[in-house]
Amino acid sequence: SQQGEEDPQALSIQEGENATMNCSYKTSINNLQWYRQNSGRGLVHLILIRSNEREKHSGRLRVTLDTSKKSSSLLITASRAADTASYFCATGSTGANNLFFGTGTRLTVIP
Amino acid sequence: NAGVTQTPKFQVLKTGQSMTLQCAQDMNHNSMYWYRQDPGMGLRLIYYSASEGTTDKGEVPNGYNVSRLNKREFSLRLESAAPSQTSVYFCASSQYGGGRGSYEQYFGPGTRLTVT
């Protein structure tokens, strides 16, 4: 399967702390994306990093990509209760027709 | 803009019944997708449409059919529902897909389907 795997499966932190979640994948990619899903809702795109990029920032989000290790990490700084959600990585390849999603990390931010 | 809309939001079917899930997007996107989401399984692609007039199977197409009615609309049909099709179904769209590199996808709110 080309599906990515997130680690950890679940993470619980205090408000104000940083949250780091990781994604590993198996095939060559041309981009990797992170999505957030609030309970009972659809997924929302957060950030896209291309295979020739190593780091990307968007507000309190920082994404890194290491293509040699086939891994990516998502860092959320100064977490808020509203960040409580599931986070998914998804990989895209030039030869593929769609994205492949991982199984997600469930983040709980305790106020 | 409404983005991606799906109907219905909830549905209960009996085994053997049929139904069609509707999806529409107003972002002039070329590609559209149907996923199912099951606990612990992440999202799995059922069918996708890289552009108007084309459809292709994804990872789990058995028991489903799709129709790309026009550029805006992409429907998913269950001809004879089975309990194994109990799931949450998401429709998504993107500017491009289909081998031209993968772009960010925009998701609808989902349809929660229960088959008894």
Please, could you describe this protein's structure?
The complex is a heterodimer of chains A (111) and B (116). Chain A is built from no helices and 11 strands. Chain A has strands at 5-7, 10-14, 19-24, 31-37, 43-50, 55-58, 61-66, 71-76, 85-92, 100-101, 105-110. In chain A, a hairpin with a 4-residue loop joins strand 7 and strand 8. Chain A starts with a strand and ends with a strand. Chain B is an all-beta fold and 116 residues long. In chain B, the strands form 2 sheets. In chain B, strands 2, 4, 5, 6, 9, 10 and 11 form a 7-stranded mixed beta sheet that branches. The relative contact order of chain B is 0.33. The mean pLDDT of chain B is 92. At the A-B interface, strand 5 and strand 9 of A face strand 5 and strand 10 of B.
Topology:
The complex is a heterodimer of chains A (111) and B (116).
Chain A: E1 5-7, E2 10-14, E3 19-24, E4 31-37, E5 43-50, E6 55-58, E7 61-66, E8 71-76, E9 85-92, E10 100-101, E11 105-110
Chain B: E1 4-7, E2 10-13, E3 19-25, E4 31-38, E5 42-49, E6 56-57, E7 64-68, E8 74-78, E9 87-94, E10 106-107, E11 111-115
Parallel strand pairs in B: 2-11
Antiparallel strand pairs in B: 1-3, 3-8, 4-5, 4-9, 5-6, 7-8, 9-10, 9-11
